[in-house]
Write a structure and sequence with these properties.
This protein has six helices and seven strands; from the N terminus they run αβαββααββαββα. Strands 1, 2, 3, 4, 5, 6 and 7 form a seven-stranded antiparallel sheet that branches. It has helices at residues 5-30, 49-57, 83-94, 107-131, 148-152, 189-202; strands at residues 34-44, 62-71, 75-82, 136-138, 142-146, 162-172, 175-185. 45% of the residues lie in helices and 29% in strands. It is α+β, with helices and mostly antiparallel strands. The protein has one domain: CheC-like (Chemotaxis protein chec, 3-Layer(aba) Sandwich), CATH 3.40.1550.
Length: 203
């Protein structure tokens, strides 16, 4: 699906509002200045998911928090970090110098990343829900660790699904921590969002 410049601008504005709200909460949590930016938004079909995510996120180990949403629109939202960025973020949150090993993350690390992911994703989805007047409910956030295949496994992506990738860069003082927000809208849901955006443009 090819979006118009106006549709991209509208989606970007909505996500920036949500991420901005999340940044304010993170500022208080970390007691450190943090900003979050959305450099670009891209949409593509399920056929190109692995290829596109591989180019954007790399082939290495990733740490992700996933939140499934349902209601007037259905889908999944994920906040994804490369393992080194995840380790650095957890170190700041816990005030400890930690490095990720090949073993599973311990409960403290998983809890810290899940909390951050829940804040950021909820901010973005809350903005989409409020600004587009969509009623959404959420399952509890879950933690995922692995490669690209792990992130898209069991997403039930169908031909009519649209995946929206918004890359978000975290700036925490002099530390550059990078993460990506991935929004997956299921069957028909993305078209519903575009219909609402078109009505807003007409108004």
């Amino acid at each position: 699906m090819n979006l118009t410049d106006k549709q991209i601008d509208a989606l970007q504005e909505i996500i920036i509002i949500g991420v901005g709200q999340a940044a304010g909460v993170l500022n208080e949590m970390l007691s450190s200045h943090i900003t979050l930016q959305i450099p670009f938004i891209k949409t593509f079909s399920p056929d190109l998911v692995k290829q596109e995510l591989g180019l954007k996120l790399g082939k290495g180990k990733l740490s992700a928090v996933e939140l499934e949403f349902f209601g007037s629109i259905n889908g999944n939202a994920e906040l994804v970090f490369p393992s080194d960025s995840a380790a650095e973020l957890v170190s700041i949150l816990t005030d400890e110098d930690m490095e990720f090993s090949e073993s599973d993350l311990d409960e403290l690390k998983v809890g810290a990343l899940t909390e951050i992911g829940n804040i950021v994703i909820s901010g973005v989805m809350g903005a989409i829900s409020n600004l587009l007047s969509q009623n959404l409910e959420y399952f509890l956030p879950s933690y995922i660790e692995g490669n690209i295949e792990s992130l898209i496994k069991n997403k039930n992506l169908e031909k009519e699904s649209t995946l929206v990738l918004a890359q978000t860069r975290f700036f925490i003082e002099e530390t550059n921590i990078q993460g990506d927000i991935i929004l997956i809208f299921h069957l028909g849901s993305f078209h519903k969002i575009l219909e609402v955006l078109e009505r807003l443009e007409e108004d």
